[in-house]
Design a protein that fits this description.
By secondary structure, the protein is an alpha/beta fold. It contains 16 helices and 17 strands. β10, α11 and β11 form a beta-alpha-beta unit. α10 packs parallel to α11. The chain is globular, with a radius of gyration of 22 Å. About 3% of the residues have low confidence.
């Protein structure tokens, strides 16, 4: 073969690659597969719950139908009416011979204004619910400050699973007096991804309890959930049963930066659009830089944060970052009439990153988190509709004028001052 022909083939290859660039979804999937060995499966269904009422109505019915095992992992179970209903149903299933295991985070419980007390936990165990607390917060306290379990995972009979941003608390249904509606997103998954979520739960359960739970009977994700759980809300999209999804988990043995790097890689892969809803947008320098570069290459960046929040200080840093990004060209929207606690990022209308992870230092670098990378246009379109509806009906857009009219000088100074606490938030 002549040198001229080799050069021609090389030039054609370069042209072909530039003419047909890798899509954002393909790029993210390849990055996660190659770098972190994330397993993607393409036989999944996903149902979105936009309210706490939808999520709990669906999950409680599913629990009624359980016949072999129910596994629950939450940052906290608030000791209120919805947890009473949940625990009552779990006790009935345990009495019927179903294996019921539940785990909650010690700090999540302590920081809850209605925590599960020891006598409550003991009473649940007496009812047959095998419930444990991960890393109870004890003196000297500081040694419990780093790694907390912030995941929200429920797996029923190894056939269906729930994950997303919601814990177990009444305010996901009723809201809170100080800011009104508590808006959040949760998902139910069917397909091979259920087995991945089951592995995460069992691996963590065995680490915390020193048990050796195992067995093929916990992994039934190949079963058609529509037969056993036909009464539940169904995935009616065109890609139902064929969604490409990978579980991106940061646990005790996972790479420390996997969640962080997925955010960065997803932003860097965007060609057309990035849409983000996140309550704690304190942003590390890497994600801030990735968003700035996306804006520089002409990507449309839309970000939604809440005007009101459930914690102090952090909102000021969120406002500071929102203002900086607005000045760089991002469209920033402040959600009104409630607290938007959802954690969603959509890229190019092709892929969605959704789950428990916030965009603060703790969530990105220390907490145990679980997100789904959903490389599916139909599902992403559903999330985009949620974004658009809230943007139009529940938000005001940040501009130089609204920055001054909606936030006082004192408020704006606090936004600048507290930015220096970003690494600790």
């Amino acid at each position: 073969m002549s040198i001229f022909r080799l050069i021609a083939i090389f030039l054609f290859s370069i042209f072909a690659l530039s003419a047909f660039p890798q899509s954002a979804a393909e790029s993210i999937v390849k990055e996660l597969s190659d770098t972190y060995n994330v397993d993607f499966s393409n036989d999944n269904r996903l149902v979105i719950f936009r309210t706490g009422q939808e999520k709990f109505d669906d999950m409680l019915v599913a629990i009624d139908e359980a016949t072999s095992s129910i596994h629950l992992e939450y940052f906290n179970f608030r000791n209120d009416s919805i947890s009473d209903i949940l625990f009552h149903k779990l006790a009935l299933k345990a009495a019927a011979g179903v294996e019921v295991r539940a785990i909650f985070d010690g700090f999540g419980n302590m920081s809850n204004n209605r925590p599960l007390k020891k006598h409550k936990v003991d009473s649940l165990r007496q009812l047959g619910i095998n419930i444990v607390e991960f890393d109870p917060v004890r003196f000297p306290y500081i040694n419990h400050a780093i790694h907390r379990d912030h995941r929200k995972i429920v797996v029923i009979d190894g056939i269906i699973a729930y994950t997303g941003g919601m814990n177990v608390a009444d305010y996901y249904i009723t809201g809170k007096p100080e800011f009104g509606e508590w808006k959040d997103i949760h998902c139910r998954i069917e397909g091979s991804c259920v087995g991945e979520l089951q592995k995460i739960f069992i691996r963590f359960w065995n680490k915390v309890t020193k048990d050796s739970v195992s067995g093929a009977h916990y992994y039934n994700e190949w079963c058609d959930a529509r037969r056993k759980f036909h009464m539940l809300k169904q995935d009616t999209t065109a890609t139902s049963g064929a969604k490409l999804i990978g579980v991106v988990d940061r646990g005790p043995k996972s790479p420390r930066r996997i969640i962080h790097d997925t955010f960065v890689a997803s932003i860097n892969s965007a060609h057309d659009s990035i849409q983000i809803i996140n309550p704690y947008l304190t942003l590390c320098c890497h994600i801030r830089r990735a968003l700035r570069h996306a804006l520089e290459r002409g990507v449309k960046v839309e970000i939604m944060v809440s005007k009101l929040s459930d914690i102090p200080i952090t909102p000021r840093v969120v406002e500071h970052n929102a203002h900086r990004l607005m000045k760089k060209g991002a469209d920033v929207y402040f959600f009104l009439g409630g607290f938007h606690h959802s954690k969603i990022m959509m890229i190019d209308g092709e892929a969605t990153f959704v789950g428990s992870s916030n965009l603060n230092s703790r969530s990105l670098s220390f907490d145990y988190e679980c997100n789904l990378l959903v490389a599916d246009k139909a599902t992403t379109a559903q999330f985009q509709r949620i974004f658009t509806e809230d943007k139009i009906n529940r938000c005001f857009k940040l501009t130089p004028q609204t920055w001054k009219s909606e936030f006082s000088k004192k408020h704006r100074f606090g936004a600048w001052f507290f930015q220096f606490l970003t690494p600790f938030l």
